[in-house]
Amino acid sequence: MIIFFKKQSNNFKAITAMLLAVFCVTIMSVQAKLIGIEYNAVQITFARAIVVLILLMPFIYKLGGLNFLKTKKPFLHFFRGLAGLIGNVMFFLAFQRLPVADVTVISQAVPIFSCILAIIFLGETIGWRRWTAITIGFLGVIIAINPSVNIAVASLYALGGTLMWSITIIFLRLLGSTEHPVKTVFYFMLVSVIVTSIFQPFLWKEPSFEIILLFIGIGIAAFLTQLLMTYALQKAPASIVSPFNYTGIVWAIIFDYIIWNANPMFATIFGGIIITISGIYIFKREAKIKSTK
């Protein structure tokens, strides 16, 4: 199997890694839902960050230890970490209360939000084609949230988490290629541990053995996601691998049905299709523009 994989093209390796990364994200989401609302989302985020930090240590040691962690952009790392942890908390709140597929569909709007934020904070210009895709994508988000029914607060958590993750994309672009991905993940997790630890005396609930295993599982899934996505983006351009992020919707629907016997609403599926098409178009259009520069 390993020999077969090594013989394949970089695009094949990248797409495979992205598919596995998306599967790991879904596993993390499912575990957060299995933990349930009895445990605060801030506690889950705290546990997740500790596990990822522990798993990162051998990589940091191999890359140079403390010297490797030196950075000239501490404030950018801090705010990237803060946006990321707020996004995680909001997503965990949503996953605890909504079907995994519902939250996953809304989260796919990250590239749509990122385009808007890039205009505001990076001064990028966007043509009418991408504006059209953004508008249609937002329509998909509205359909997925389904405002004709009473909008659940959890849907707003999912929307807020999506916005915060879009902000992290902007910070990552500001950090640029000067910061190693492992270093970026380390500071993200470090900020998460420091900030969420402040709240633990007020909301910590002693976890059972089963919950501890789920905490560890969430951390492992998050760690594998980072490794696989980094590998995928090293092997192929984002325009090739990013569209496969939308396979998460399929996995989410499968797990919802198998574990909770839940079928997605028509609005969720229809909105998800619109968001997916809009997101893929944005990825492809950005790649085409970059290739002409």
Class of secondary structure makeup: mainly alpha
Largest sheet: none
Strands, count = 0
Residue runs with pLDDT of under 50 for 5 or more positions: none
Shape: globular
Order of helices and strands: HHHHHHHHHHHHHH
Roughly what fraction of the amino acids lie in strands?
A: under 5%
Number of domains: 1
Mean pLDDT: 89
Percent helix: over 70%
Radius of gyration: 19 Å
Oligomer: single chain
Distance separating the two termini: 40 Å
Helical stretch count?
A: 14
In short:
This protein is mainly α and 293 residues long. It has helices spanning 2-6, 10-35, 41-63, 74-97, 100-107, 110-122, 128-145, 153-175, 181-197, 200-203, 209-235, 238-241, 247-260, 266-292.
Task: Explain how this protein is built.
- This protein has 293 residues and is mainly α.
- The chain has one domain.
- 80% of the residues lie in helices and 0% in strands.
- It is built from 14 helices and no strands.
- It has helices at 2-6, 10-35, 41-63, 74-97, 100-107, 110-122, 128-145, 153-175, 181-197, 200-203, 209-235, 238-241, 247-260, 266-292.
- Helix 3 packs antiparallel against helix 9 and helix 6 crosses helix 8 (153-175).
- The longest helix has 27 residues, at 209-235.
- The protein is globular.
- The mean pLDDT is 89.
